Amino acid sequence: MMFLLEFHQSGSAAFTRQIMGFETKVHNIMTKAPSLRSAKQDTRPGTVPDTVIVIPAYNEEVAIAGTIREYAEAFPTARIVVVDNNSSDSTSKNARAALRPDVDLLLFEPRQGKGHAVKLGLSRLSAEIFIMTDGDLTYPAEDARALYDKILATRSDMIVGDRRAGGTYEQQNDRLGHSFGNSLLTTVISRLSGKRYNDVLSGLRIMSSPFVSSLDIRSAGFQLETEINLVAAYIRADVIEEPISYLARAEGSDSKLSTLKDGVKILSFAMLNWIAFLPMQFFSIVAAIGWVLSLMLAYRVVFGFMETGATYSTTAIAGATFGIVGTFAFFTGLSLRIQLRSERRREVSVFLDRKRVWNARLDAKALLPKRDGVQK
Fold first, then answer.
1. DSSP assigned state of 250
2. Is 224 exposed, middle or buried (0-12, 13-18, 19+ CB in 10 A)?
3. Which of 18, 102, 256, 335 has its CA 20 to 30 A from that of 96?
């Protein structure tokens, strides 16, 4: 009996040593081969947050491959999604050669416009962190990595790369009206949204999964960044702007943004969304104009009659009309405000519920022990 017990114990010890030896070999292989660690995104609890990098590209054959390589090096565990927005050059060919097979994706969006391309990219894969950048290599990957680390540390909803803070945007952007237009739109959109921004047109954004889930992108073109800012203000998202560098475009790569044409589109889009999100502000202005005109015309009618005895019937009708329009505008805005306030509270509540789940997932991963400097 003692013999059997000793045999069992020795056999168990040998089996345990074999298992431990096998685990050690696997650990050594994974630590000595970082390419294997970055070949596939590990979605098990305890790994780094699942990250997707969305790169819309339109006729960027010169810079797209370099952009992919830089971001793949800075984010080895992230999946890159390049969306060819109906390019007429070799953008797709060069992107396919730089992307990692079975890890990254190359999509094609035939509808022209950055908004369409980004919407497709964001809807293709699920992740905990989404990174949006341009395919022209003007946003350094090292700056994007710093913003990525900051969103994990602060648990903000979106961190925007501020090109204007360091002055590099004005230095690199020599097109007439670009810098002035960006400054003007930033000021207007900040006032309309009720939130102070410094660079509303920045194309580098690090966004949380709950925030992306709250986006219902409806803009087709370069109104995209404006829409994202307005939505962030509407749902009371935590937004941080961090200074970044803005590099010069590679030779042969041109900006697709038209200063006048796209500027008018962005401004009109911002105005429409301002009315939709904050109707009381708009209709209060309309009401005030109507009432002021009504009082001015009423003054003319009353004092004209007192001085001359003449009746100004046409003027009186016009004054009454402006007064009625002002009153209707005021109560229209008040009614929409009451209705939208309850809807806004509901949307903010849903957003906060998603954010709690997101924070819990990140906490679960961050609390697990680290070994050899690598979070397991």
1. P
2. buried
3. 256
Write b or e for each residue in 140-149: b if 16 or more Cβ atoms lie within 10 A of its Cβ, otherwise e. bbebbbbbbe
> CA of 360: how far to CAs of 48, 105, 158, in Å?
14, 28, 18
Q: Is the dihedral of CA 106, 42, 129, 343 positive or negative?
A: positive
Percentage of residues in the chain with pLDDT exceeding 90?
51
The overall average pLDDT reported for the chain is: 81
Rounded (5°) CA angle 284-290-295: 125
Tell me which fold the domain 39-277 belongs to.
Spore Coat Polysaccharide Biosynthesis Protein SpsA; Chain A (3.90.550)
Greatest distance between any 2 Cα atoms in the chain: 130
pLDDT surpassing 50 at residue 39 = no
- Answer with the residue of higher pLDDT: 30 or 192: 192
Q: How far apart are CA 83 and CA 95, in angstroms?
A: 10
Q: With helix as H, strand as E and coil as C, how does 119-183 read?
A: HHHHHHCCCCEEEECCCCCCCCHHHHHHHHHHHHHHCCCEEEEECCCCCHHHHHCCCCCHHHHHH
Are the CB atoms for 297 and 318 separated by under 8 Å?
yes
Residue 215 CA to residue 230 CA, distance in Å, equals: 10
Helices and strands (H, E) in the chain, number of each type: 13, 9
Instruction: Kindly report the number of other CB atoms within 10 A of residue 199's CB atom.
Output: 24
Q: What mean pLDDT comes out for the span 346-375?
A: 78
What does the pLDDT read at residue 339? 86
DSSP 8-72: HHHHHHHHHHHHHHHHHHHHHHHHH-HHHHHHS---STTSPPPEEEEEEESS-TTTHHHHHHHHH
Question: Locate tokens 């010069």: which residue?
Answer: 248
- Confidence class for position 182, pLDDT limits 50, 70, 90: low
User: 153-190 as b/e, with b when 16 or more CB fall inside 10 Å?
Assistant: eeebbbbbbbbbeeebbbebbeeeebbebbbebbebbb
Domain boundaries, the chain: 39-277, 279-366
Q: Could you tell me whether strands 239-243 and 205-208 are parallel, antiparallel, or unpaired per DSSP bridges? A: unpaired
